[in-house]
UniProtKB/TrEMBL annotation, chain A:
InterPro entries: SpoVA. It holds the Pfam family SpoVAC_SpoVAEB. This is Stage V sporulation protein AC. Keywords: Membrane, Transmembrane, Transmembrane helix. The chain crosses the membrane at residues 20-38, 59-77, 83-104, 125-143.
TrEMBL record, chain B:
Keywords: Membrane, Transmembrane, Transmembrane helix. This is Stage V sporulation protein AE. PANTHER family: STAGE V SPORULATION PROTEIN AC-RELATED (PTHR38450), STAGE V SPORULATION PROTEIN AEB (PTHR38450:SF2). The keyword Transit peptide does not apply. The chain crosses the membrane at residues 6-24, 31-48, 54-71, 83-111. InterPro entries: SpoVA.
Length: 144, 116
C-alpha cells in the first residue's frame, strides 16, 4: 500500500499536464455540434415522416447508435473519438462504440466465449449502475 | 432557438465531463457511470423532463439521457401496472436503445474484422 502511494507521488512529477482549457473547448464544440445535429435530425423526422415527438426522439438516438457502430466496424470511429475527447465518448455513441469495439476485439476467441462474453467488458458498468440506481429510485417512487 | 439550446446544453455537459476527466484523472467509463446515475436521479425528481423540454436532443444524446429513459420507463408504466412496473418498466423505453446496440454490435462483429 505504501509503495503504491509512493509510486503515485514519484510519478506525478513526470506526467505531462493535459491542456485543460483546449480539451474542454474542443469537447464543448464537438459535443454541442453533435447535439445540434441530433436536434435537427429529430425535427426532420417529425417534419418528414409525420411522427410523434417520442418516436422521433428514439429514432434519432437509434440513428446515432447505428452510425457509431458502423463507423466502429469500419475503423474510423477511434481516430474521431481520440480527437473529440469527451465530446464523442460521453454521448450515447460512446456507449455504442464501447460495446461494438469490445465485441469486435474479441472476435477471434469464438462466438460465445469471445464476442458474447466480452461485449459488456467496458460498457457493462453503464448498464449495471443505470439499472441498479433506477431500480432503487423506482422502488422509492412506488412506496411514497 | 431550440438549436441553440441543444448546442449549449449538450456542449456544456460534454465540456464539463472532459474537465472532470482531465482534472480528476477519471477514465471514460467512470464519468459515463456517474452521468448515468445523475440522469436517473434528476429524472426521478422530474428535473430532467424540463431539461429535455428546453434542450431537446442536447439533453437526450449524452449518456445521462439513457439513465433518464431508464427511470422514465418505470414512472410512465407505474400508472397502469403498479408494482410490476419496477422490473419491467425499466426497459420499456431504454430497451429500444439497449437491444438495438447489442444486436447491431453482434452483427458488426459478424461482418467486420478488427482494425489495427
Amino acid at each position: 500500500m505504501k509503495l503504491k502511494e509512493n509510486y503515485q507521488q514519484a510519478v506525478k512529477v513526470f506526467q505531462p499536464k493535459p491542456p485543460y482549457v483546449l480539451n474542454g473547448i474542443k469537447a464543448f464544440f464537438i459535443g454541442g455540434l453533435l447535439c445540434l445535429a441530433g436536434e435537427a435530425l429529430q425535427k426532420g423526422y417529425v417534419f418528414l415522416f409525420d411522427m410523434s415527438l417520442l418516436e422521433a426522439q428514439h429514432l434519432m438516438l437509434l440513428t446515432f447508435i447505428f452510425l457509431a457502430i458502423v463507423l466502429t466496424g469500419i475503423g474510423t470511429y477511434d481516430s474521431f473519438s481520440q480527437f473529440a475527447g469527451a465530446g464523442a465518448t460521453i454521448l450515447i455513441t460512446g456507449f455504442a462504440n464501447a460495446l461494438a469495439s469490445a465485441a469486435l476485439e474479441h472476435r477471434s476467441e469464438g462466438w460465445i466465449t469471445g464476442v458474447a462474453n466480452h461485449m459488456f467488458k467496458i460498457g457493462g458498468a453503464v448498464i449495471v449502475y443505470g439499472i441498479v440506481v433506477a431500480y432503487l429510485f423506482g422502488t422509492i417512487h412506488l412506496i411514497f | 432557438m431550440d438549436y441553440w439550446m441543444a448546442f449549449l446544453i449538450g456542449g456544456m455537459i460534454c465540456g464539463i465531463a472532459q474537465l472532470v476527466m482531465d482534472i480528476g484523472k477519471f477514465s471514460q467509463i467512470h464519468v459515463m457511470s456517474g452521468l448515468v446515475i445523475a440522469g436517473v436521479i434528476l429524472g426521478s425528481i422530474g428535473a430532467y423532463d424540463s431539461l429535455i423540454d428546453i434542450a431537446g436532443a442536447g439533453a437526450l444524446l449524452p449518456i445521462s439521457g439513457f439513465g433518464y429513459l431508464l427511470i422514465k420507463g418505470i414512472l410512465s408504466y407505474k400508472m397502469e401496472n403498479g408494482w410490476m412496473s419496477i422490473g419491467s418498466g425499466i426497459f420499456q423505453l431504454a430497451g429500444l436503445e439497449l437491444s438495438f446496440t447489442i444486436v447491431l454490435s453482434f452483427f458488426i462483429a459478424l461482418i467486420c474484422k478488427p482494425k489495427g
